[in-house]
Amino acid sequence: MYNYHCLNPIAQIGLDIFNEAYQKTDAVDNADAILVRSAAMHDMEFSTSLKAIARAGAGVNNIPLDKCAEKGIVVFNTPGANANGVKELVIAGMLLASRDVIGGIDWVKEHEADADLAKAAEKAKKAFAGTEIQGKKLGVIGLGAIGVLVANAAVHLGMDVYGYDPYVSVDSAWKLSRNIHHAKTVDEIYKECDYITIHVPALDSTKGMINRDAIQLMKENVVVLNFARDVLVDTGAMVEALEEGKVRRYVTDFPIPEIAGVKGAIVIPHLGASTEESEDNCAVMAAKELRDYLENGNITHS
Ligand code: MLT
């Protein structure tokens, strides 16, 4: 019988797959397998019994991959399992950046005691007028599971979509709408687009890619969205660009204190994958991967 440990709460439907056969343990020391969401594992000591870690999510930058490779610990992730949840929040982010829904809701709360709230709202609403996303250019950097879904959804919303990815997989290429313009360079995205959304992993080659030079190339009043990883964007450069008004809105799913209070920033506490459906999908995929490895030695999504 194997022991497993959860470092974060993982959806019950995934645990049920495990609980049929294995023992959940409170101690990480005697675990054969760990299920984790986004808890940072870099400072953890790994026991000799640990055979595998499954990340219920796509990004594995919370896991010390080199240490795992040294110790022969197999690391799994769940690519695509939460892609729809993230896609929906990216689209919501674009809409929030274009329509002052948040300002409008705050206004109603402040004026809820007004005897004639509807009349007061009629006067106030001009201040909350926005713009539409239909007909605007959207640049999608990274055409993996999430980037493809965002790009296709934006086509359906009437946006003029540019995609950039030097390594598009065959799977992604098949799924991409034919109406997407393939940019030859990332600079083309920076120069052409009104909205830019990043969907690449955190690698040495991508960290800080949205820096002063990249922002310099962008259009005035551009909207930038980052639901991928915080380190992709140079925080200082983004704060400056928001303060100067070069970037109209920066929508990010990473709550970084330096940016949270800056005018024009919309900061979400990492909720992209926080839907019942995404959490269930990730938990099931992660639990199945671990079981298949522990019982049959099969390795998928490692
Ligand atoms: C991911 O990498 O897929 C997300 O960070 C998932 C999560 O919110 O745990």
UniProtKB/TrEMBL annotation:
Which segment of the chain is annotated as a signal peptide?
none
Reactions the enzyme catalyzes: (R)-2-hydroxyglutarate + NAD(+) = 2-oxoglutarate + NADH + H(+); (2R)-3-phosphoglycerate + NAD(+) = 3-phosphooxypyruvate + NADH + H(+)
Q: Which UniProt keywords apply?
A: NAD, Oxidoreductase
Specify the pathway: Amino-acid biosynthesis; L-serine biosynthesis; L-serine from 3-phospho-D-glycerate: step 1/3
This enzyme's EC code(s): 1.1.1.399, 1.1.1.95
Task: Tell me, in a sentence or two, what this protein's role is.
Answer: Catalyzes the reversible oxidation of 3-phospho-D-glycerate to 3-phosphonooxypyruvate, the first step of the phosphorylated L-serine biosynthesis pathway. Also catalyzes the reversible oxidation of 2-hydroxyglutarate to 2-oxoglutarate.
Per the similarity annotation, which family is this?
Belongs to the D-isomer specific 2-hydroxyacid dehydrogenase family.
User: What name goes with this protein?
Assistant: D-3-phosphoglycerate dehydrogenase
The protein's organism comes out as: Ruminococcus hominis
What range of the intact protein is shown?
A: 1 to 302 of 388
